[in-house]
Write a structure and sequence with these properties.
GO terms for molecular function: RNA binding. The protein is mainly α and 274 residues long. It contains 15 helices and no strands.
Length: 274
Amino acid sequence: MCKNTDDIQRACSFGVFGGSRIGFGEETEKEWTGPYFFIKRLLLAFKGSRSTKFLPLSSFCCKLYSSRSCNEVLSVGVANKEKEFDFERLFHSYTKIYILKCFHALLVVSGKAQSIFIGTRLVNLYAHLGDVSLSQKTFCMIESKDVYTWNSMISSYVRNGHFRESLICLNEMLSTADVKPNFYTFPPVLKACYNIIDGVRIHCWASKLGLEWDVFVAASLVHMYCRFQSSSVAFRIFKDMPYRDMGCWNAMISGFCQNGNAMEALSLLDEMRL
């Protein structure tokens, strides 16, 4: 249930609704079918009369989604007569960005959008659907971010080709005193390095945090150095690994092949078979 006007304003003014008309772009213009107000439908979905008294304050919202679009969001999630929604089921139901925006508005009005867990899932889902700008806006709305939230934002940037932004996000994360990277943080940003200088700097951070010899991080370091024609450095890291899984062996063999070191690749393949 909406507890104050701030929730309504977030639902209406946040980027999930787009411009002053609160539209969803050309993709959903055809969905406009009548003078319905999505916020009204959302608020009335919750019990009690407290939420309805805020309806006049939401007039600045203009038109939101039609009843057809609203039903697309809610039809798969209504659980019982008390109008409780199965949010977990809803999370697995969206393949279109405009319906996810409606769901995000529902989460804001229901008071669940401030959850770190739900906010992080929204960050990932927006990125999966190709809208990294909404991932970033959702990320910024999460007040208390944990390491998984930061990792999700970094991965979202990398997944959508925003490599420089992922490095900036890592720098911001490292400057946050109460959150430190873990072994899931470094593999995506190592893929995002534009040059070996960025890679060496990230390598130093991983080493300082004691994550250099994690198999995921080490394999990513091998891949990064080979990508910048430094297979000798990559091989030294590979030989110093206390433990190697299949990914580490494959990264080093692939790196040798990429740099034209066919004999070394075959020799390492023979060693792997032993």
